[in-house]
Amino acid sequence: EIEKVNRFIKDNSLRIESVKGAKTGAMYATGLCRTHMDFDFIALHMSEACSLIQYLIFQRGFKFVSGGSVPFSFKVIQNQNAEETLLGHIHLEKILQNQYQVIVDVNIGGFPLGRSSAIIKENLTIEDVFCISLSHLYKHEFAFMKDVNDLYMMLDEGRIDKDNLLKNLNNYGLMGHFSLFNLLCEKKYNKKFDIQSPKRIVYQLLLNM
Fold this sequence. Notes:
Helices cover about 40% and strands about 20% of the residues. It is an alpha+beta fold. A hairpin with a 5-residue loop joins strand 7 and strand 8.
């Protein structure tokens, strides 16, 4: 089903990209499987988002998600300069063979990183994908192991340009998020990723208090 969605995006030259599990799942080595229930896409332009949504609903039989999730939402992101950006998010689902739930999330206008930043750009780099996964790690009450695995895998396999990542972390205000993740890796897995920032020592002291 998702292959048909990806083919529609490609055949119509839509500037829509997959993120999170839909993107990182393809990075794992042969024989490893990254489980995920939903497939996340970013559509910067409303017209292209509507094209995808119409295709999902009218040609593929998707419906609004019911129960346990908000079908549609708006988010207003305000940066440090008090500039506001309006983003949209829609959840659609399809039940296959009366038992398998497929969920497609379409992020319209960009991908929010908390309440004060968002990734709004075409042609996402792997460092952008990393920042999206890092931000999502802190979204829910509990950190999901699949997100920890994604971040660890992208760093441990040398896929990340550390200079570009450090720049992104600072630009998106995620240095504190990364420092705590890095400390988790140090304490639990005896693994330290050498991406330095002056702020890191502050989080080190806080965690050790």
